[in-house]
Amino acid sequence: MKNIVIAAGYATRLGELTKNFPKPLLKIGNNTILGRMLDDIDTIDDITEHIIITNHRFAPIFNEWKATTHYTKPITIVDDGTETNDTRLGAVCDLLFAMDKLHIDDDLLVVAADNLLFFSFREFVDYAKAKGTSCIMCHEQPSVEKLQRTGVVELDTDNRVLNMEEKPQTPKSHWAVPPFYIYTQSDLDLVRNAVDNGCGKDAPGNLAHYMVRHTTMHAWPMTASRFDIGSLDTYNEAVRRFGTPDSVDAMV
């Protein structure tokens, strides 16, 4: 299984902080946002490689960071060639770019690189192996306002995904979908042809939405929380709350 990290965005909502620096490499305490995630994923036996897809502006910074890392699985940095937010490929096209460039034909763990997680991806990988299908994550979200800004799924009693909607005005459930996915090798042809068949290009949830309509997918309910770093305020809050070794206890 390849771990593909989608990190080609320009994080314009963080202003000057990320004008010339990638958000995933911002520090939270003594580690980076991305480093905290890879520290966990690298311990999963099924993972054979970390592939980080970024843009042309930030690729040299990622390569400098790579030279300082000591993970057990190799890291490959992929430059998508874009240099501005206006010319970005979008998360789905970045995934397809990396798959094509590296001739990937493996199960995929696909993750966004701007979250702090308080559970292990090992649980998600084990769940997908048990189900034998492509999978998404989900968590209960009581706020209708927040559900209207994310992907929302309907599930059956076995957590098979019956339907998924992106940013629904009238959510049909309280199951929200964070940007973490597993796509099986047997579903990769669907992934490769998704954009040509009408899948949206920008948000990674567009691909999950497309896949739900074309293959069997299950949803793994997260066993703990996550913290989404989407703005300067949330980054500063993350540094304040989680920047010390015992700060995980502050998560609510």
Descriptive notes:
This protein has helices spanning 33-41, 59-66, 91-101, 121-131, 144-147, 188-192, 204-214, 232-242, and strands spanning 2-6, 27-28, 31-32, 49-54, 75-79, 108-112, 115-117, 134-140, 151-155, 161-166, 175-177, 180-183, 217-221, 226-228. It is α/β, with parallel strands linked by helices. Strand 4, helix 2 (59-66) and strand 5 (75-79) form a beta-alpha-beta unit. The two termini are 32 Å apart.
Outline of this structure?
By secondary structure, the protein is of the alpha/beta class. Helices cover 28% and strands 24% of the residues.
What is the number of beta strands? Answer: 14
Order of helices and strands: EEEHEHEHEEHEHEEEEHHEEH
General shape: globular
Low-confidence stretches: 246-252
Biggest beta-sheet profile? 10 strands, mixed
Q: What class, by secondary structure content?
A: alpha/beta
**Average pLDDT, to the nearest integer?**
93
Tally of individual helices? 8
Label this structure with key terms.
252 residues, alpha/beta, 8 helices, 14 strands, disordered C terminus
Task: Give the topology.
Layout: E1 2-6, E2 27-28, E3 31-32, H1 33-41, E4 49-54, H2 59-66, E5 75-79, H3 91-101, E6 108-112, E7 115-117, H4 121-131, E8 134-140, H5 144-147, E9 151-155, E10 161-166, E11 175-177, E12 180-183, H6 188-192, H7 204-214, E13 217-221, E14 226-228, H8 232-242
Parallel strand pairs: 1-4, 1-6, 4-5, 8-13
Antiparallel strand pairs: 2-3, 6-12, 7-14, 8-11, 8-12, 9-10, 9-11
